[in-house]
Amino acid sequence: MKIGVFVCHCGSNIAGTVNVGSVAEEALKLPSVAFASDTMYACSEPGQDAIIEAIKEHRLDGVVVASCSPRMHEPTFRKTVERAGLNRYMFEMANIREHVSWIGKDKDANTRKAVDLVAMAVAKLTQDRELTPKTFDINKRVLVIGGGVAGIQAALDCADGGLEVVLVEKTSSIGGKMSKLDKTFPTVDCSSCILGPKMVDVAQHPNITLYASSEVADVKGYVGNFNVSINRKATYVDWAACTGCGLCMEKCPSKKSRDVFNEEIGTTTAINIPFPQAIPKKASIDPEFCLKLTKGKCGVCEKVCPTNAIRFEQKQETAEEAVGAIITATGYDLFDYTRYEEYGGGRYADVITSLQYERLLSASGPTGGHIKRPSDGKEPKDVVFIQCVGSRDKSVDRPYCSGFCCMYTAKQAILTKDHLPESQSYVFYMDIRAPGKLYDEFTRRAMEEYGTKYIRGRVAMVYPKGDKYIVRGADTLMGAQVEVEADLVVLAVGAEAAKGAPQLAEKLRISYDAYGFYMESHPKLRPVETNTAGVFLAGSCQGPKDIPTSVGQGSAAAAKVLALFSKDQLESDPQVSVVDIKRCVGCGKCIQTCPFGAIEEMDFRGMPKANVIETICQGCGICTSTCPQGAIQLQHFTDNQILAEVNAICQQTPAQNLK
Amino acid sequence: MSSSLTFAYYPGCSGQGTSIEYDKSTRAVCKALGIELVDIPDWSCCGSSPAHTVDHILSAALSARNILQAEDMDVQGIITPCPSCLTNLKVASHRMRDEQFKEKVDDLLNEPCRNDLPIMSVLQVIYEKLGPKALAAKVTNPLKGLKLAPYYGCIMNRPPEVMDFDDCENPVAMDHLMEAVGAEVMPFPLKVECCGASFGVARNDVVTKLSGKLLDVAADCGAAAMVTACPLCQMNLDMRQDQINRANKSSHKMAVFYYTQLIGKALGLSDASLMLDKLCVDPGHLFREIETARTADAV
Ligand SMILES: Cc1cc2nc3c(=O)[nH]c(=O)nc-3n(C[C@H](O)[C@H](O)[C@H](O)COP(=O)(O)OP(=O)(O)OC[C@H]3O[C@@H](n4cnc5c(N)ncnc54)[C@H](O)[C@@H]3O)c2cc1C
Ligand code: SF4
Ligand code: SF4
Description:
The structure holds two protein chains of two kinds. Chain A contains 19 helices and 34 strands. By secondary structure, chain A is α/β, with parallel strands linked by helices. In chain A, helix 3 (70-83) links the parallel strand 3 and strand 4. In chain A, helix 1 (20-28) runs parallel beside helix 5 (107-127), helix 6 crosses helix 7 and helix 11 runs parallel beside helix 12 (405-419). At the A-B interface, strand 24 of A face loops of B. Bound molecules: flavin-adenine dinucleotide (FAD) and iron/sulfur cluster (SF4) (2 copies).
C-alpha cells in the first residue's frame, strides 16, 4: 500500500509550536508511506491541488492529512481524494492543532506527539477498506414545530417553495409571543397588522397542514425519512364543524377562566377563541373551568352552537405524519419573576410583567388599549420599568442577556407617553444594549423626545405605600440611592427556554445548553443546523432573539430544507455496524444496548441472529463493545483498525527516535 | 442524647442587659415547649460588630471558642436568640470549612474545634423542629385580633448561603408562628430592611430615618404592634421611638415585642417571666383589648 502524508502549517496555528518539517520527514520513514510533505494551508485550493497531484504522481492508495479537527475539514479532504480517483474512506486525519499545537508550547514535545498521531493515522489507514454509501429516497415533506413568527416564516417559505408542510403548534392558535404584542420596535408598527396577514396565509396555503393544540409525541427515523406521531389534545369542540362564530363565548357562564392569551390580565370564558385574529379561528374548552366537565351541569354552549360542534366526550388523538426534514421553532418562555421576593414575589397587583403590559397597551386587549392599573383600574401617572429581571443575574442562574428587553422597554416607555401624555416613565437599567439597525436611535428617542428618565442601577426593593409603590434602587452614575414613587411597576422579564424544550430535544436527538436552549451545529457557520442531520432550528428556541432575527432564521432554515430537498436521493453513511453472521450467537445483548433501536432479531436458518437496520444506525459503536463474540463491527472503526492505532503508539515509535 | 430537643444555649451579652427580657422570655418559652436549653459553660462575647471589622481570624476565634465549649456537651446543636451572635457563630463556622483558615483559628484555641455542630437561631428551632402546628396545639390564650407587623431585621437570613434559613427577601417563619398563636399578621413589606443598627449612638439621624420608616410603614399597613427577633432592632424601634417621633414629627405609640414574649403570652406564661414591663412603649392596652374581646365572645 502506498500512503501520502500532508502536514499542515495552518499559517502559524500549527507551525508556531510544531516543527512541521520534521513531522513530514519522520512520516516518510514509516512503512507504507510513499510520499510526505508539509503544506501551508492544506484546505486551500493550492493545498488540495497538491494532494491530488501527489496521489496521481505517486499512485497513492490513501492519504493522511495532519491538520485540524475532523469536525470541519474531514468532508473537505474526503472530496479531495475522491476527485483524485480514490475512495473517500481511504483517508485519515490526524488532529495536530486542537490536540497538539493549541494546547502546549513545548515545541519538541509537540513535534513528538504530532509524529505519534501521524503514525497512528497511517497505521489505521493500512487497515482501511473502501466503503460505498447507499442511496435512498427523500420524503419531500417538512415538519415545522412551533407556530411563532419564526415557525410561520419557515412554514410559508417552504410551502412557497413547493414543499408540503406540517405545522404543529402547542396552543390553540399560531402567532406566538408576537401575536400578544401591541407595537413593535424600532418602527412602532402594529404587531397584529404585520403578523395577521402571515397567519392568514398559513391558514389558506394549500401546502400547509396545521395541527394546533398539538404536540410532537415521538420522532422515529432519520434525515429524509422521519415518522412523527403528533398528539392532538382534546379541545372538546369538533373543529371541522366549528365556524368560529363566537356565540358560545357570549353565553358561557363560566366567565372566570384563565386567560392565557392575555397573560392573565383579566379572565375569559371556559369555551373561548383566544383572540379575534386567532388562526385557526376555532373554539376550545378549558376543561379546568368548564362547568359541564367539572361538575356535570351546564352544557349551554352545546345548546347555542349553531353547528353542533361541541363534543364533551372528545379524547386526545394521535396523528402520524411522514416527513423528510424538521424545523424546530418552539421559541421561548418568560422568566418567572415571582422568584424575586424583593419585587413582591407576585404579591403586588400593580407589579406586572412586560408582556402583561403589552396586553394593557393593545387595543384588542382586556382594557381596550387603555392603560389601567390591575388593582383599581386607575390610570397610572408614574410608571417604573425595571430591566434585567431574570437576565444577567447569576443569583437566579440566568447569567445571560435576553437581548430584546432594553429595546422593548424603550418601546413601552414611548407608548406610555403616547397613551398618557401626563405620565412620567422611569427605566432602571444596567446597560442599554441596542446594537441593531436604528436601535440606538430608538432608545435615544425614548430619552430625548419622550422624556423617559433612565436611571442606571439595579432596583433593590419594591414595596407598597398607601396606594403607590416605592421603588428603591441605586443610581450608579450619581453614586446615590434613589426612591421613586410609582403607580405601576413593569418588570422587563427575561427570556428562558420554552417549557418542555429539553424533552422535545430528547425526542429530536438534538443537543441543548445548560438553560434548555437548542444548540446550533456551529455558532458562526452553521447557525440554523443541528448536529442531527435533517433537523434545523429557527428563532428564539436557540437563544433569545428579536423579531427581525427570528424571521431571518425562519427563512434561513427553510432555505436549508429546500437545498436538502433539491436532490431526489440522499446518501446514507456507510459507517454503520455490520453483524458477522457466522460469529453471532443471537444473545441479543446488542439489541438491548443500542440507544437508537437500530438492531433487530432475525431468523437465519432457524437460528436467531442480530441484524442492523442501516438507515437507523448512527454509528455510535456501543454495540461493538457489548457483543461478547466480537461479532458486530462498526465499519471504518473495526477492532483491527483501532488495534492498529493502539499498536502504533505502543511500539517503539518514530517519535522516540527524535530524542 | 438526653431529651429529643436539647441544645447548647448561647445567650449573648445583650441578653444579660439591654435585652434581658428576650433572654428570659426565650428560656420560659423553650421550657414550656419542651426545648431544653443548656448554657454553654464559661461562654464569652462573640465580638459583636467590632471584632470582624478588625480581623476575620480573631473574630472567628472568639466564636470558635464558644463552639468548642459546646462540643463536649450532649446536645443537638448550638442555638442563640440573637441574630448578631448567630451571624458571628455561623460565619466563623462557615469560614472554618476552609482548612487553611481553620488552622489559623485553631492555633488561637486551646484545642482544635471539630466544627460539626449545627448552629441555629432559637426561631429556626421552634419553626423547624417544633413547627407552627405543634405550637398552635399548646396555645391556651390565643392573641386573637392582635394586628402585627413581623420584622426580621436585615441579618437574620443573610447572606443566604451562610444563614441557610427561610427566604432572604421575604422570610415567613415568624409570620407563621404568630399566626399559630392566633395573631393577625399584616402584609408588612419591610421585613428585612435595616433599622440603622448600631448607628443609634454615632449617627442618631440614620436610625431615626430608617427606623422611622419602619414604624410609618407598619402603621400604614394597619399593625397595632411590631414583633421582632433581634435585640438591636427592638431597641431602636422601642427605646428610641421617642427620639424617632421627635426627629420625624410623628406620634407613634407602637409596642415592639420580642416574638418569644408573644408566644409566652399565648401559652399563658406569667407577665413576670416574659418581663413585659421592660418594654418602653407600654403594650398593656393591647392585651386588655384581647381579653375584653375574649370575654365578650364567651358571653
Ligand atoms: C414584552 C415583550 C415585547 C417584545 N417586543 C418586541 C418588539 O417590539 N420587536 C421585536 O422585534 N421583538 C419583540 N419581542 C421579542 C419577540 O417576542 C420575539 O422575538 C419573537 O416572539 C420570537 O419568535 P419565535 O417564533 O422564535 O418564538 P415565540 O414567539 O415564543 O413562538 C414559539 C411558538 O412555539 C410554540 N411552542 C413552544 N413549544 C412548543 C412545542 N413543544 N410544540 C409545539 N409548539 C410549541 C409556542 O406556543 C409559540 O407559539 C418582545 C418580547 C417581549 C417579551
Ligand atoms: S359547558 Fe363548559 S364551555 Fe360550555 S358553556 Fe358551559 S361552562 Fe362554558
Ligand atoms: S452502532 Fe450504535 S446505533 Fe448502530 S447499531 Fe450499534 S449501538 Fe446501534
